[in-house]
Amino acid sequence: MWQELRTVDEGFFLSHQMRNGKRMAIFVKATKGINKNKNLYQVFRPNTGLQVKLEPLQDIKKKYQKVLPKAAEKDWTVQYNCSANQCSHAYWRGNCKRYMVYQSCEVGLRRRTYYVLSGSVLSVWSKVEEILAAGPGPQSKMQILRLKTDDGAKIVGCLIPRHCVPTLVSKLSEGATTYSNKFTNADSQHH
Ligand SMILES: [Zn+2]
Fold first, then answer.
1. Ligand 1 mean position to 107 CA, how many Å?
2. Which own/partner pairs from 167-173 qualify as long-range (CB within 8 Å, at least 24 positions apart)?
3. What's the CA gap between 137 and 133, in Å, rounded?
4. Are the CB atoms for 89 and 99 separated by under 8 Å?
5. What spacing in Å lies between the alpha carbon of 34 and ligand 1's midpoint?
6. What's the rounded Cα separation, in Å, for the pair 112 and 169?
7. How far is the CA of 43 from the centre of ligand 1 (A)?
8. How far is the CA of 176 from the centre of ligand 1 (A)?
9. How many A from CA of 187 to the centre of ligand 1?
């Protein structure tokens, strides 16, 4: 990617500010050819990769300074490695309130786990709906998704919030034989 860069403003940046003893490293790339507005740049983060939001260079420069790849390497690598299982709150603040409540927080993780219930879901639909509705927050709405596994199998199912999984498993296994399969395919590594 380094070789694709065309302007002096592209490349690695480090945040002026330090949080929890660490600086934020980002990778910035012009959107020439992608976006008509030449002043907008793509921002890549070590944990979540390419950001949805394009940013004007002057905004980036307010928070970050351009550095050589070598200078950004340490902060980039440390965050990349930590974000395998440490959320952004813990990384930048040293603790996470959500983690304390739910025993899990996936904010800013580069690898996330999704629980998908598939198969003959219709027969247990009301049970599932009930459990999801009992959960807190906006996640209580049923979300259907389609995914493809590494070995090419296509699965349609509904997304189960992590905190509903134990209840759902116990409710659905009442008097039933269970079969579950773990796919670790929802990997979002951008490098
Ligand atoms: Zn967190």
1. 6
2. 167/131, 167/134, 168/117, 168/127, 168/128, 168/131, 171/127, 171/131, 172/124, 172/127
3. 9
4. yes
5. 33
6. 20
7. 22
8. 35
9. 19
CA–CA dist 79, 110 (Å, integer): 10
The DSSP call for residue 74 is H
Q: Is residue 117 predicted with pLDDT exceeding 60?
A: yes
With tokens 């296994």, the residue in question is 173
What pLDDT, on a 0 to 100 scale, did the predictor assign at position 3? 66
133 Cβ contact partners less than 8 Å away, ≥ 6 residues apart: 140
Strands 11-15 and 25-30: antiparallel
Give the pair of three-digit tokens for residue 27.
């990778």
Q: 102 in the Ramachandran plot: left (φ > 0), alpha (ψ -120 to 50) or beta?
A: alpha
Please tell me the distance between residue 104's alpha carbon and the centre of ligand 1 in angstroms.
Answer: 8
Distance (Å) from CA 114 to ligand 1 centroid: 17
- Here the tokens at position 52 are 């949805």
CB 168 within 8 A of CB 160: yes
What average pLDDT does the structure give for the chain?
A: 85
> Does the pTM exceed 0.85?
no
> Which tokens is 103 given?
């025993």
pLDDT band at 176; cut points 50, 70, 90: low
